[in-house]
C-alpha cells in the first residue's frame, strides 16, 4: 500500500477545487470531443423527428433496435455507480473516499442519457403526452396499467430521484467550502446551495448516518431496477427472453459494465483533473480484483442462459441460440463479446502489475464496455428478428447511420455532463478527503512503519 | 439579560480541545458552546455532547406513506382501466407489488433527505451566520460560545487561554 500523502485542508481545497475556480486548457480540450459528438447527435435526432422512424433500420419484426440496446446499456452502467458507492459506504471501506461521488454522478448522468432513448424511440416524442395523461376509452384506447412497461418508468424514476438526492445531500459540505472560498455571484449561488451549513457536530453526524442509511435504501432499488428492465423482455413471449435467470443475468451484466466504467472514469479524472494525490494505483488494483470476481460471475450467467434454453429443447429457443452462435453477424458479435468482456481482460487483471498500470486498466475497462454493449445487442436483436411460423415478414435489422450517430452521441453526452459537473463541484469529495487525513495514522510493527487508519468503535460514533 | 456570542478560532484540533476544556473549567457547559469544523472529527473530540437525532423516524414514516400511496395508486388505476388480459384478475397483486416496492423506497429516500436537512437545522435563514468564519473550511476549528452578556468576558478569556488564533466578538 502506497503511503498516503499528508495534505493540509488548504492543500486539499486547492487540489480539488481548481476546476471550479479556473478554466485550464486541459478542461477545454476534454470538453470539446464529447461536445462535438453531442451536437452531431442533436442533428441526428432532429433528422429523425423531422423525417420519421424510416431513417432508422427498424423494420418488421425487429422494432427494438439500437435505441433499446443503448437504453439497456446505459441503465446497466448507471447501476454500478451507486452500487459500488453504497457497498463501500456500508462496509466503511477506506478506499471509497475518492470514488464515491464520481460513481454516484455517473449513475445520474447515465440514467438521464438512457431515459432519452425510449423518447427518441417513440418516433414522435410529443405523443408521449398521450401516454402520460389519463386515457379516454371512448377513443378506443385500452391501456394495460399492469404492463411491465409501467414498472420500468416507476423503477427508473425511483432510482434517478434517489441518486440525485444522494449526490446532492453529500455535496452540501462541499458547497459550503466553495461558498467560503468565493465572492460575488458565485458566493451567493453556492451559499444558497449550502443552505447555511456550518459544520457542527450534529450536521457531521447526520451526514455520516445519511451515507449509510441512504446506501441501505438505494441498494434494493439498484437490484430491482435492472431486474425490472430484464422483465421488460422476460414478461414478453419472444423466445430466449423469458429465461428464469434473466434478472440476475442482467444485474450482473450491469455491474460488470458499470464497475468497468467507474474504472474508465477514475483514469479519466486522474489525467484531466490531476488527482494523483487522491486516486492511486491501489484504487485501480482494488477495483481490478473486484472485477475479476464480477466478470466470472457474469460468465457463469452467460453459460446458464444457454443451458436453460437448450434444456427446454424448445425448437424456437434453440433457433435463437443457433442464430446467436452460428449465423453471421451474430456469431462474430458473440466471439468479440466474450473476448472483450472476459478472455482478454481477465488474464491481464490477474497480474498485479497490470492492475496497477493505469493506462492498461483504462484500455481494458473500455474493452469490457465494448463487449457489454455488444452483449445487449446479442441478447435483444437475434431474438426479436425471430423467424417462426406466422411471421409474414422476416427482415433483418440493419442499423442506420442516424441511429449509430445517436449511440455515439450518448457516450459524448455522459462525458460532457461529467466535465460540466466537474466545473461546478469537485468530483472527489473534499470533506471526505479531510476526514481521511484526520483518521490517518502510522503503526510501528517490528522495524517497519506501516500506514494505518484509525477507526472508532461503535460508541462513541464518528460524526 | 440578552445573549451574546463570541467565536474562538483554532488552528488545530489539540488547541481547540484545550479551549473547550478551559470553557468547561470556568463553568460553561457543553450546551453553551458550539463546535464548527470543516470536516468530521470523532464524537466528543471537543467535549461536546451531540443530542440524539430522529432521522430513522423520517425514513420509516416515508416508507409507510410511500406504501399506502402506491397501494391506492395501483388500486385506483387498475379499477379505472378494467382491462382483462389473458383472463387474469383486474386487481393483479404481482404486478402491483413492484410499483408498491418502488414507491415505498422512493418516498422513504425523499423523507430521509428531508430528515437530514431538518435535523441538521437547515436551511438557516441568513446563511451560516454573522460569527461564522470562512477559515473553518480551510482547516480551522471554531468554538462559538453563546451566553448572557455578563459572562462573555469569561468566555473570551477561556478561549484565548486555550490558544485561539483569533477571538471574534458578535458585531453590535
Short overview:
Chain A has 463 residues and is mainly alpha-helical.
List the helices and strands and how they pair.
The complex is a heterodimer of chains A (463) and B (172).
Chain A: H1 9-21, H2 25-51, H3 66-90, H4 100-121, H5 128-132, H6 148-181, H7 184-194, H8 201-234, H9 246-272, H10 281-312, H11 315-326, H12 330-343, H13 345-349, H14 352-355, H15 358-384, H16 401-424, H17 430-438, E1 440-445, E2 448-453
Antiparallel strand pairs in A: 1-2
Chain B: E1 3-10, H1 13-25, E2 33-36, H2 55-80, H3 93-119, E3 141-148, H4 152-161, E4 166-169
Antiparallel strand pairs in B: 1-3, 1-4, 2-3
Helix pairs in contact in B: 1-4, 2-3
Question: How does this structure look, described?
Answer:
The complex is a heterodimer of chains A (463) and B (172). Chain A is mainly alpha-helical and 463 residues long. Chain A has one domain: Formate dehydrogenase/DMSO reductase domain (Formate dehydrogenase/DMSO reductase fold, Up-down Bundle). Chain A contains 17 helices and two strands. Chain A has a two-stranded antiparallel sheet. In chain A, a hairpin with a 2-residue loop joins strand 1 and strand 2 (448-453). In chain A, helix 3 (66-90) packs across helix 9 (246-272), helix 6 packs across helix 7 (184-194) and helix 6 packs antiparallel against helix 8. The radius of gyration of chain A is 24 Å and the shape is globular. The two termini of chain A are 27 Å apart. With 172 residues, chain B is of the alpha+beta class. Chain B has four helices and four strands. Chain B has helices spanning 13-25, 55-80, 93-119, 152-161, and strands at residues 3-10, 33-36, 141-148, 166-169. In chain B, helix 1 (13-25) runs antiparallel to helix 4 and helix 2 (55-80) runs antiparallel to helix 3 (93-119). Chains A and B meet through helix 1, helix 6, helix 8 and helix 17 of A and strand 2, helix 2 and helix 3 of B.
Amino acid at each position: 500500500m502506497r503511503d498516503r500523502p499528508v495534505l493540509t485542508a488548504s492543500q486539499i481545497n486547492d487540489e480539488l477545487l481548481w476546476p471550479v475556480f479556473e478554466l485550464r486548457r486541459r478542461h477545454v480540450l476534454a470538453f470539446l470531443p464529447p461536445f462535438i459528438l453531442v451536437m452531431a447527435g442533436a442533428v441526428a435526432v432532429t433528422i429523425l423527428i423531422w423525417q420519421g422512424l424510416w431513417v432508422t433500420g427498424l423494420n418488421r419484426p425487429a422494432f427494438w433496435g439500437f435505441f433499446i440496446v443503448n437504453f439497456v446499456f446505459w441503465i446497466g452502467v448507471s447501476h454500478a455507480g451507486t452500487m459500488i458507492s453504497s457497498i463501500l459506504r456500508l462496509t466503511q471501506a477506506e478506499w471509497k473516499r475518492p470514488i464515491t461521488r464520481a460513481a454516484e454522478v455517473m449513475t445520474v448522468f447515465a440514467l438521464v442519457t438512457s431515459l432519452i432513448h425510449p423518447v427518441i424511440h417513440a418516433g414522435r416524442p410529443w405523443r408521449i403526452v398521450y401516454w402520460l395523461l389519463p386515457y379516454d376509452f371512448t377513443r378506443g384506447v385500452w391501456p394495460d396499467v399492469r404492463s411491465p412497461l409501467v414498472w420500468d418508468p416507476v423503477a427508473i424514476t425511483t432510482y434517478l430521484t434517489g441518486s440525485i438526492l444522494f449526490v446532492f445531500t453529500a455535496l452540501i459540505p462541499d458547497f459550503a467550502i466553495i461558498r467560503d472560498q468565493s465572492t460575488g455571484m458565485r458566493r451567493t449561488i453556492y451559499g444558497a446551495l449550502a443552505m447555511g451549513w456550518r459544520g457542527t457536530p450534529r450536521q457531521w453526524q447526520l451526514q455520516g448516518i445519511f451515507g449509510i442509511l441512504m446506501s441501505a435504501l438505494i441498494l434494493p432499488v439498484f437490484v430491482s431496477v435492472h431486474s425490472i428492465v430484464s422483465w421488460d423482455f422476460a414478461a414478453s413471449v419472444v423466445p430466449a427472453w423469458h429465461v428464469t435467470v434473466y434478472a440476475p443475468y442482467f444485474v450482473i451484466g450491469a455491474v460488470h459494465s458499470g464497475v468497468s466504467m467507474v474504472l474508465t472514469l477514475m483514469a479519466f479524472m486522474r489525467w484531466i483533473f490531476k488527482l494523483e494525490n487522491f486516486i492511486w494505483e491501489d484504487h485501480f488494483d482494488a477495483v481490478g480484483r473486484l472485477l475479476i470476481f464480477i466478470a466470472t460471475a457474469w460468465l457463469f450467467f452467460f453459460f446458464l442462459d444457454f443451458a436453460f434454453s437448450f434444456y427446454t429443447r424448445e425448437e424456437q429457443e434453440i433457433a435463437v441460440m443457433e442464430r446467436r452462435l452460428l449465423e453471421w453477424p451474430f456469431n462474430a458479435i458473440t466471439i468479440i463479446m466474450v473476448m472483450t468482456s472476459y478472455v482478454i481482460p481477465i488474464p491481464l487483471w490477474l497480474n498485479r502489475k497490470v492492475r496497477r498500470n493505469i493506462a492498461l486498466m483504462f484500455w481494458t475497462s473500455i474493452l469490457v464496455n465494448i463487449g457489454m454493449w455488444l452483449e445487449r445487442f446479442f441478447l435483444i436483436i437475434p431474438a426479436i428478428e425471430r423467424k417462426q411460423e406466422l411471421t409474414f415478414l422476416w427482415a433483418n435489422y440493419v442499423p442506420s447511420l442516424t441511429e449509430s450517430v445517436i449511440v455515439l452521441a450518448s457516450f459524448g453526452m455522459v462525458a460532457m455532463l461529467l466535465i460540466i459537473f466537474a466545473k461546478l463541484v469537485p468530483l472527489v469529495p473534499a470533506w471526505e478527503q479531510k476526514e481521511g487525513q484526520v483518521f490517518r495514522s502510522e503503526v510501528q510493527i517490528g522495524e517497519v512503519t506501516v500506514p494505518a487508519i484509525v477507526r472508532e468503535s461503535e460508541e462513541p460514533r464518528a460524526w | 439579560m440578552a445573549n451574546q456570542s463570541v467565536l474562538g478560532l483554532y488552528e488545530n484540533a489539540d488547541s481547540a480541545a484545550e479551549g473547550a476544556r478551559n470553557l468547561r473549567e470556568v463553568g460553561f457547559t457543553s450546551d453553551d458552546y458550539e463546535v464548527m469544523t470543516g470536516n468530521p472529527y470523532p464524537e466528543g473530540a471537543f467535549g461536546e455532547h451531540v443530542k440524539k437525532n430522529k432521522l430513522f423516524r423520517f425514513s420509516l414514516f416515508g416508507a409507510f406513506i410511500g406504501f399506502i400511496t402506491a397501494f391506492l395508486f395501483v388500486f385506483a388505476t387498475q379499477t379505472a382501466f378494467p382491462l382483462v388480459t389473458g383472463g387474469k384478475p383486474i386487481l393483479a397483486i404481482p404486478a402491483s407489488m413492484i410499483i408498491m416496492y418502488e414507491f415505498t423506497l422512493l418516498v422513504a429516500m425523499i423523507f430521509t433527505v428531508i430528515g437530514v436537512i431538518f435535523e441538521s437545522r437547515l436551511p438557516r435563514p441568513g446563511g451560516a451566520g454573522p460569527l461564522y468564519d470562512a477559515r473553518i473550511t480551510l482547516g480551522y476549528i471554531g468554538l462559538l460560545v453563546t451566553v448572557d452578556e455578563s459572562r462573555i468576558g469569561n468566555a473570551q478569556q477561556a478561549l484565548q487561554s486555550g490558544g485561539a488564533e483569533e477571538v471574534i466578538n458578535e458585531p453590535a
